[in-house]
Design brief:
It is found in: Membrane. Its main location: membrane. The chain is of the alpha/beta class. The protein is 52% helix and 16% strand. The longest helix is centred in the last third of the chain and has 38 residues. It is elongated and about 110 Å long.
């Protein structure tokens, strides 16, 4: 049977992702063509391809081991009755005809029917409707739904692939495509490179075959096509995300959706549920004001009710006395209803939020409750026939790391919204303890969240439906929304958030839809996740520009070769040297470098604007060599030597610009790459087809090298001006 908690890729999927790719296939075909020319050294580019593949496989498998290990800690436990004993078993251990005990927050992983008890169920994953469905004895239960309130005993009729919702449950963790500029931008780059390189490569080969021989045409075409392939970009993105997931795993953060690491880094609005996220979720009764002697009544109620939320547990532990009244019926607590009730022979008793129970609001009672809530207490009332019998005050302490976490996000410019089902006055008082000062609002009187979402930051008496609507309202304002939660009442909002974060102690349903799970409920890891996301985005953004320099100038030079250049200026091994020293090795090191700077602007725009100047500079240098060849004789080997030196120096100059501001690591990196490039040109010239140049060729190369920094600056300013005008037009016409 499929384990719905197995979140990592299989070994087969990892191998397929890294080995059987379009670009790897193209590289293999190109290597075969080169092999038949007999110029084996020009197959050196395959070493880079193989190294990329091996490193990618290693990092993904290491990340998989960490994910699998954490998944076991987060694995759903099923309460099963066997031999009159309640056991906690994994999903795979449950069999047909087993009897399960279902509690509020449990995800139902099997088809069956209720044999005892009653619950309210959310079947939105199956029906699309979020309304609670009441289930009682003999009612059917389907996998893919979860328990909102109540408790029942379920007979298992079907398991595994026989269940009605097997296919839905199998993909529950991937129920939607999370937003990701990084993924979408790289997909766009790969798509257009694929569209261009195959037809352009074919035309380039035909054109050169007409003018030269098969060997020259093949080597020149392979050099052009290899240059167009940004295969390292996909590899480095995959590696960067896998390493981030591994590092977060060591912090006991289970990453269920890789690209949500990036999404949290772009988050500008953080929605926090109060209970269990901002607070510890361990309620205790701190004060009871009795209008009548209610100890026995509350003891009877808590024995009759199946509720096992934090409030019910605290009250059950406090009121142990019993009157042993006969129970006629009961209604468990739900987040929508905000109260529970038990009917005895002498009438119905209700326990919960006063404003939801009372038929007519008594202002004196409201004022009395406000006195308690202003002290950061949660107040529930016991009522019968619209009369208050007791005020029960509960206290939930802030998490030790809550204040520091909130301060961190405020300093980062992230707007914080605290959303809770509790009395807004209680929530506001707790928020003040965490150093968060803002106005609160009682959402029980609000019909349209659009009216209040901008004006308030603390929302109390929020229903699960309103939580979802608040998240959607923020997204309609083009906000990137992260949501934390731990209860079944948070599920709908978590599903809609751009990045959803569940507490490890939260309900099964909550954890199943979350993109990140804090296994030890550690709020202080949210800044760590944010930092890892920024590292991924900033470093990939920097290294992507290095890869695109090569891709853009290879496409440009291929087009110019079709139109006006005699030959493609590089041999495959020369381009491999430039790629390895100015792109491959540096990009791998820079991708793993710490970089927690705030993410700004559009990823694709940033990458292209940084890559274009370097690419244009290489194209201009090659055109200059070609023009010189019209006035003085330059042999094909001298032509490729001059172009290789100029392209290599240009690529190293781009690397230097990318490394600004310089750190010691970056200085060492640039120095080593420059020394190796110079050494390769001087000491291994025969291997890389480098030949001696004429005096006038040497003078041209020196002059061009001196001009490269100025050309790069000039083109960079021009590109910035162009993008600035584009941005201005987009803003003017509403994007």
């Amino acid at each position: 049977m499929h384990n719905p908690n197995n979140l990592s890729k299989s070994y087969k999927e990892i191998i397929k992702q890294h080995v059987f790719t379009l670009f790897n296939g193209i590289n293999v075909v190109l290597a075969i063509f080169v092999f038949f020319t007999g110029s084996y050294r020009n197959m050196l580019f395959m070493i880079t391809v193989i190294l990329n593949m091996v490193i990618g496989l290693f990092q993904e498998i290491r990340s998989k081991h960490m994910l699998d290990k954490l998944s076991l800690l987060n694995q759903t436990k099923i309460h099963v009755i066997r031999n009159n004993t309640e056991l906690e078993l994994s999903v795979e251990e449950v069999k047909v005809n087993d009897i399960l005990v279902l509690y509020a927050g449990d995800e139902i992983s099997f088809d069956g029917h209720i044999i005892s008890g009653n619950i309210e169920c959310d079947e939105s994953m199956l029906t699309g409707e979020s309304d609670a469905v009441y289930k009682q004895e003999n009612s059917s239960l389907l996998s893919g739904s979860f328990v909102i309130s109540g408790k029942c005993w379920m007979h298992v009729d079907k398991v595994g692939q026989d269940t009605y919702a097997y296919s839905i449950l199998k993909h529950a963790k991937r129920f939607k495509r999370y937003p990701s500029q990084l993924r979408d931008s790289i997909d766009w780059i790969i798509k257009w490179c694929t569209y261009i390189l195959i037809p352009l490569g074919c035309v380039l080969f035909i054109k050169q075959l007409i003018k030269t021989n098969y060997t020259t045409a093949t080597l020149n075409t392979v050099a052009g096509v290899v240059g167009m392939i940004p295969e390292g970009l996909v590899f480095l993105t995959s590696v960067a995300l896998a390493i981030s997931a591994y590092k977060l795993g060591k912090q006991k953060v289970l990453v269920q959706e890789l690209y949500c690491i990036e999404t949290l880094a772009r988050t500008d609005t953080l929605c926090l549920d109060k209970t269990g996220t901002l607070t510890q979720g361990k309620l205790s009764v701190c004060h009871v004001e009795k209008i009548e002697n209610v100890d026995g009544i509350l003891g009877d109620m808590m024995q009759a009710l199946p509720d096992d939320n934090a409030t019910a547990i605290a009250i059950r532990n406090y009121f142990k006395a019993r009157n042993y009244k006969k129970v006629v019926s009961y209604l468990p607590f739900s987040s929508q209803r905000k109260y529970s009730s038990v009917t005895f022979e002498d009438g119905e008793y209700k326990l919960g939020a006063y404003s939801y129970i009372a038929k007519e609001i008594d202002l004196d009672v409201e004022k009395h409750i406000e006195d308690y809530t202003s002290q950061a207490m949660r107040v529930v009332v016991l009522m019968k026939d619209n009369a208050v019998l007791a005020y029960i005050c509960l206290r939930d302490e802030l998490r030790p790391d809550a204040k520091d976490t909130l301060n961190f996000f405020k300093k980062q410019g992230v707007d914080i919204k605290i959303i809770s089902g509790d009395d807004p006055r209680t929530v506001e008082a707790l928020a003040r303890k965490a150093g968060f000062t803002s106005k609160s609002i009682d959402m029980s009187t609000i019909k349209d969240v659009e009216m209040v979402v901008d004006s308030y930051s603390i929302f109390g008496r929020v229903t699960p439906e309103q939580k979802k609507e608040l998240v959607l309202a923020l997204k309609r304002r083009n906000k990137t929304v992260a949501m934390t939660g731990d209860g079944v009442n948070d599920v709908m909002a978590l599903k809609e958030a751009d990045c959803s974060i569940a507490m490890g102690s939260g309900s099964q349903a909550c954890k199943s839809v979350a993109s990140l799970v804090l296994l030890e409920n550690q709020m202080n890891t949210l800044p760590v996740i944010l930092y890892q996301g920024r590292c991924v985005i900033n470093n990939i953004q920097r290294t992507a520009s290095l890869f695109l320099v090569k891709t853009i100038f290879s496409i440009g030079l291929s087009l110019l070769t079709l139109v006006c250049l005699k030959n493609y200026p590089f041999k495959p091994i020369q381009l491999t040297l430039i790629s390895a020293l100015a792109t491959g090795i540096p990009s791998f090191i820079l991708t793993l470098e710490p970089n927690g700077n705030i993410v700004k602007e559009n990823f694709l725009r940033n990458v292209i604007s940084k890559a274009l100047p370097g690419a244009i500079c290489v194209i201009c240098s090659v055109i200059g060599v070609s023009i010189l060849g019209h006035f003085v004789y330059i042999s094909p080997n001298e032509y490729s030597t001059m172009c290789t030196i100029l392209a290599g120096v240009n690529a190293l100059m781009v690397l230097i610009r990318v490394c600004v501001p310089m750190t010691m690591l970056r200085k060492i990196l640039v120095t080593i790459m420059s020394v190796i490039f110079a050494g390769s040109i001087i000491l291994c010239k025969n291997f890389f087809y480098i030949v001696h140049l004429q005096w006038y060729e040497i003078i041209y190369v020196i002059l061009n090298v001196c001009l490269i920094p100025f050309i790069l600056t000039l083109v960079s300013n021009w590109v910035k001006m162009i993008f600035k005008k584009i941005n201005h037009k987009k803003k003017k016409f509403g994007n």
